[in-house]
Amino acid sequence: DGGITQSPKYLFRKEGQNVTLSCEQNLNHDAMYWYRQDPGQGLRLIYYSQIVNDFQKGDIAEGYSVSREKKESFPLTVTSAQKNPTAFYLCASSSQTTWETQYFGPGTRLLVL
Amino acid sequence: SQQGEEDPQALSIQEGENATMNCSYKTSINNLQWYRQNSGRGLVHLILIRSNEREKHSGRLRVTLDTSKKSSSLLITASRAADTASYFCATRAGANNLFFGTGTRLTVIP
To answer: How many CB pairs under 8 A join A and B?
Structure first.
């Protein structure tokens, strides 16, 4: 899982609640990404950031928000607007010189109570 | 969609056998990558092959790319129980982000 940490490993959300997933990297990478993975499925891109204080929507950004105030941190908030949040969330990063290869964290599994 | 599709969806083999999985995609690409995911964990990058390459090796891994057929294959030779995982192909076109396939679940029986 390289130098990327995600916390918590499991997260429970109540109806109408916002929750925030943490992603930290010590690889000095410029770009960071958030993906959602549903059972038996591939990864779908939620948001990505290529530089501090800038981020772009991915394919399924609705109901999610992010911030990139520091190079090493890219937290993801799952808002109450996301009606089906139960999934496995993966954070990844890549360096400016090796945009192609992405390094992934261990993931956070979000469950709805 | 540019998303790749892996085939087969699931593969079960005996330890020591070779495992082959395929990936097809829809649009022109700059490169294609293969990743491994152990159950409940993050993805690990295995190998990258560029659009102007036809074959690449890394240890027990062999990847081929046929851009005319828009397909790639991943061969794992002399498989081990530790190779049990899901394998994903991911494609990149231009400055776009990676698009991941749905994966092949490989089980290697000791």
So the answer is: 52
